[in-house]
Amino acid sequence: MAMALLSSAALFAQPRDGGKPAFRGGFAAELPYPVVYEGPDVVFRKIADGLYVGSGHVMATESLYILEGTERAMLIDTGTEIPDLDKIVAGITSLPLTVVITHAHPDHSGAAKYFDEVWVNPADEKDLGGYLGDDYKGTVRIFGNGHRWNLGGRIIEALYTPAHTPGSTTFMDVTNHYGFSGDSFGNGNLLLMGTFTTLMKTCQKTLDYMYANEIYWLYNGHFNGSNTESPKRLWDLISISEDLLSGKVQGDKVPAGLGGLDHVYTREGVRVNYGGHSFK
């Protein structure tokens, strides 16, 4: 019953602001939201009051999100290489800014170096340092599972969601009943750097959180306007993991990709890329 109620709420609760697609110049996404900033490296659009999505064009339309409360704003992820991203964000919101990273891959933390302070999961801290560079003079801050930021009438909570990377994190907007998952659940194309066992535990933990806090859907790290992640996506990933672990199904062999991901399995619109390490 809870699953049915949550899925129905997700169906009708998604923002549907008007506006014509206006992404140009090689940007992959054409989102039906009004443009608030357009430059050579990123386009920001207003999804709803206090919520903006930025799309880059370097790595599969990498997504950045700006959230506004009454007292502070938050930037979730920083894209690949976006010069002067700090100034771009300041042109969209005048509120004091908190910058958080869903995980330390270059398409999500590449422009973090433009900010004086960045928050990251401790399991990804070392990798983030590589993208910040040796000359970074700012502060890297660590958050724990369950850490909350109060933006003023808007509470954001960190939920550790490892499997894609050890430090992958989903940021839950408990006030508005949606979250921001980065690449934790793959955006439809999961690169499983960890194990199936970890993925199943992460999916179950996230489902429990979503039910308990009435989180209806998750915006992801490569948002195309229609690929928000519902509880069904997490159930599907659990089912796929169970079937691959048991040998009930087998994926296809492909040339080894990033992290030795040399197999792929697709079902229910979900593509899971994995390797031998995934079964440990």
Detailed description of the structure:
The radius of gyration is 18 Å and the shape is globular. It has a six-stranded mixed β-sheet with strand order 1-2-3-4-5-6, with helices on one face. Strands 9-10-11-12-14 form a five-stranded mixed β-sheet. It has a four-stranded mixed β-sheet with strand order 13-17-16-15, covered by helices on one side. Helix 5 (196-213) packs antiparallel against helix 6 (231-246). Residues 1-28 have low confidence and may be disordered. The protein has helices at residues 2-13, 85-92, 106-109, 125-132, 196-213, 231-246; strands at 35-38, 43-48, 51-55, 63-68, 73-76, 97-100, 117-120, 139-142, 148-150, 155-160, 169-173, 178-180, 189-191, 217-219, 252-253, 263-267, 270-274. It is an alpha+beta fold and 280 residues long. Helices cover 24% and strands 26% of the residues.
Task: Give the topology, please.
Layout lengths: L1 H12 L21 E4 L4 E6 L2 E5 L7 E6 L4 E4 L8 H8 L4 E4 L5 H4 L7 E4 L4 H8 L6 E4 L5 E3 L4 E6 L8 E5 L4 E3 L8 E3 L4 H18 L3 E3 L11 H16 L5 E2 L9 E5 L2 E5 L6
Parallel strand pairs: 5-6, 7-8, 12-14, 13-17
Antiparallel strand pairs: 1-2, 2-3, 3-4, 4-5, 9-10, 10-11, 11-12, 15-16, 16-17
Helix pairs in contact: 5-6
